[in-house]
Amino acid sequence: MKGNELKPHIGIFGRRNYGKSSLVNYLTGQETAIVSDLAGTTTDPVKKTMEIGGVGPVVWIDTAGIDDEGAVGRLRIEKSLEMLAQADLALILFTNNRFDAEEASLVEECRRRGIPYLLIYSQADRCRPDPGLIEAVERDYGAEVTVLTVKDPSLREPLTARIREALPESAYVHRSLLGDVIGAGDTVVMVTPIDSSAPEGRMILPQVQVLRDILDCHARAVVCRETELEETLRQLAAPPRLVVTDSQVYGMVSKIVPEEVYLTSFSVVLARSKGLFEEYVKGTPALDRLGDGDRVLMLESCTHNVTCEDIGRVKLPKLIARHTGRQIACDTAAGLSAPPRPMGDYALVIQCGGCVITAKQLAARLAPAVEAGVPVSNYGLAIAYMNGIFERSMRIFNHQSPRP
Questions:
Q1: Is 180 a member of any domain?
Q2: Which of 114, 122, 223, 394 is deepest in the core (most CB within 10 A)?
Q3: Distance CA 355, CA 206 (A)
Q4: For the chain, how many structural domains are there in total?
């Protein structure tokens, strides 16, 4: 259930030939990354998963050197710096008794983004560190420098312990999606449409995540399609505590589920768990302010085959056009790719549930919009708003009575 993108990410940054790939191999205990004395061996970020005691699986990101040269080199540097948006922790390497503008800019960028970092003096067997430099770096940046040579296996566990200590708990401690609103013995009905965009032979990840969370809460899960919902509710001995539906059938489901039963969507549940819920709540009413010629950016966190029933590329744009009665242009950016236009060109950004990315990655994805003052929303909340059930979709999380 948990893909690589949901695990804590630890990025390794530094100049070419400073031992970044060697450090990945050292920490994972495997020949994961190609190591060479030739500068610029690592051209694209390389990811490797490894278990850390007390944390669980983490993803190591080996990046290209931040001092690469030429037009292609600049592209590699940009790609490396993009990895900061995915990193829950950064390891910044320096050696040869140099700590110059490149290293300082990495530290500054980590501070600006709120990313914890460790400073590591690498390849100490090749060039002994100058105690004066180490003291100056520690004084100037308020961080202890780890002196390392990957030829000494006894240093691996102390470094791993430092990494474990520096990694924010929020990156790896599981938060229940529904644990504060449902309890043991409650019944939750999950409405899961099956259309051409549904994967063959399995449920989509948000549905699996919610199902697992319901079971972890010792509640009962009842799963049905929207076409069987009315009969399913009728057959229950008592009304369910909550109905969670796929956003695309929100309008239909809201007419079937009695007002005294809480109702929300998988996308809204995930939006709340990722930490930007208040931004979504504040930004969603911007749908009413859209005018002719405005642009809306759809942010998809995953990449998938697009069908005629795709929610972000087909159904949402149609719903927005019908809701506003205006000529609205919709762009899409999939995965963690950059938007096709500058953020200031957009009147609204609508993010998917983000089931395949971490809260850190989602926050970084939306940061340019928030900083530019562009309203942000979420698939589930936007669809609920345009179906007139915005407040209802959040009622259970506000601990309000489900009765109007």
A1: no
A2: 122
A3: 6
A4: 3
Reported as type and span, the H/E element at residue 92 is strand 89-94
Q: In this structure, are 201 and 312 located in the same domain? A: no
Q: Does 166 lie in the same domain as 223?
A: no
Q: Which two tokens stand for residue 233?
A: 């509710």
Q: Which amino acid is at 316?
A: L
Q: Rounded distance, CA 105 to CA 109, Å?
A: 6
Q: Output DSSP code: residue 171.
A: G
Do 320 and 348 touch, CB atoms closer than 8 A? no
What is the residue range of 257's domain? Answer: 187-270
Task: From first to last of the 404 residues of the chain, give the pLDDT tens digit.
Answer: 344 456 889 999 999 889 998 998 898 876 654 444 444 444 467 888 888 887 888 999 999 888 877 787 788 788 888 888 889 999 999 999 999 999 999 999 999 888 999 999 999 999 999 999 999 999 999 999 999 999 999 999 999 999 999 998 877 777 899 999 999 999 999 999 987 666 677 788 889 999 999 999 999 999 999 999 999 999 999 999 999 999 889 999 999 999 999 999 999 998 898 878 999 999 999 999 999 999 999 998 876 555 546 788 888 999 999 999 999 999 999 877 889 999 999 999 999 988 778 788 888 889 999 999 999 999 999 999 999 999 999 999 987 666 44
Residues 259 and 167 in one domain: no
Query: What is the CATH number for 72?
Result: 3.40.50.300
The total number of residues shown for the chain amounts to: 404
Which residues in 367-397 are b (16+ Cβ under 10 Å) and which e?
A: ebbbeeebbbbbbbbbbbbbbebbebbbbbb
Tokens standing for residue 321: 């056009």
d(CA 65, CA 47): 15
Integer Rg of the chain from CA: 24
Q: Same domain, yes or no, for 285 and 263?
A: no
Query: Which H helix or E strand runs over 9?
Result: strand 9-13
Same domain? For 192 and 260 the reply is yes
Listing DSSP states for 42-76 in one string gives --S-EEEEEEETTTEEEEEEE---TT--HHHHHHH
Q: What is the pTM (predicted TM-score) of this model?
A: 0.73
Pairing mode, strands 46-52 and 56-62: antiparallel
CATH of residue 235: 3.40.50.11420
